[in-house]
Amino acid sequence: MKKIAILFLTLLFTSCEGLLEEVPTDRLSQENFYKSKEDLIAALNAVYAQVRGANSYGTNYPAQLNGMSDFCISRGTQIPVSEFQGLDGTNIGRTDVIWRDLFQSINSSNIVIQAVKGVNITDAEKNAIEAEARFLRALNYYNLVRNYGGVPLRTTPIGEVSQVRGKRASVDEVYKLITDDLQYAETNLPKTVTSGQAGRPTLYAAKLLLASVYLTRENWTLARDKADEVIKSGLYSLVEVKTSDDFEKLYGADLTTTSEEVFYIKYARITGQGWGYPSYQHPADGPYTTGVRAHFTLPTLPLIKNWSDKDLRKDYNLYSSYTNRSGRLTTFPTAEPICFRKFRDTPANPAGNDFPLLRYAEALLIYAEAVSQANNGPTAQALESLNKVHRRAYGYPSGAASPVDFTLEGQSAASFRELVMTERAYEFMMEASRWYDLKRLGVAKLKEIIKTARGKDVKDAHLFWPIPKQEMDNNPDLSPADQNPGY
After folding, report:
1. Domains of the chain
2. Which of 67, 179, 344, 476 is the most exposed place for a label (fewest CB within 10 A)?
3. Which positions ≥6 away from 405 have C-beta within 8 Å?
4. What is the pTM assigned to this prediction?
């Protein structure tokens, strides 16, 4: 994948200087390279390669988003992320490369979408390859629009910097492209992936991502229906647990896939192929992935304080002491007493854990929230979906009634949504989703939650990341007025 990425980056920024210059047949170009299905698959691999690294999904993306939650506090150079006053230069540099890599990945998707039309393969094969490229383009635009607001829409390949153009589209226009891409993807992607292809999207990954999009847009009925299609497919199930360590069967570094995986960014314990983010959770001398301990939490924060010790996720996610590599029991500093350990591997880098972007628990919790919101109150089906996730967390079989079940008695749409949001916070802790959930509740509610938990007043500048200076300088369709507030 590294070689493929280098090849396509070279192609991306190379252009001919003379119209009459003959291109030697032993040289590759975007126009003459794509001859077979194998060429197109190689091009698809480049789409993944550009966002798997440390600059985006590998490290910067989850690190920035987790640090903006109400239960996680950042250390070191990440401190401004958790102060909610807007980003400083160091962290602007981090969000700048997230923008760059996501748009490079979008550009590689566009190359595939354009090239597939000219390759001599069956229509079904063409449609499936285009669908995968459009799924990945939609995923990247979804993460761009939620972090930057409206962004330029690019649906054709860009070959050089001088071609970087495009006004900021409206948020609605970005979501229209995302929805169109995912609807195409759910129609043309395969139902399941073939053996050895874990990490590629299926039509149910497209449906679940669509459900998430609809939930964000508060289109409750469509969110409900798409999540329900994933649930009723019968292809997925919660990974059952009886002890906290059993969650390794869901997140462990040695896993290839699980019954809960819908779409993950895949990593391996191989130099250049590992996941960098786990190093943000652990100390350098601990029993897990060698790290920098960039994130911690406090027992006084509401979600941590109110978390039942009987919830197995608590012990799995949090730790306050460890035996270091010299055999000495070590506790974290008093000011930073608890760290996160969901993603863990052997005491070396890189970590082999996968980044779980879409899993079955998401389908259940989207369904629960969307049903209640659409119905102006929870139903028995919504309650059961929530309870399945909740039971599993306490070590009970997810499909049978348990002593920890929530009930419908006294529940309104508002109170039930709060239950679901709390369950999401615990279930998806450190999976880079809490900030998005807080934003879905509205700016006023987000600010209230952060003020209560952290005692911080959230500045409007912190709600969106700045458009990179390089984009502002190179894109003639943007003016200083297009920059996000506060930057």
Report:
1. 37-189 (1.25.40.390)
2. 476
3. 387, 390, 391
4. 0.93
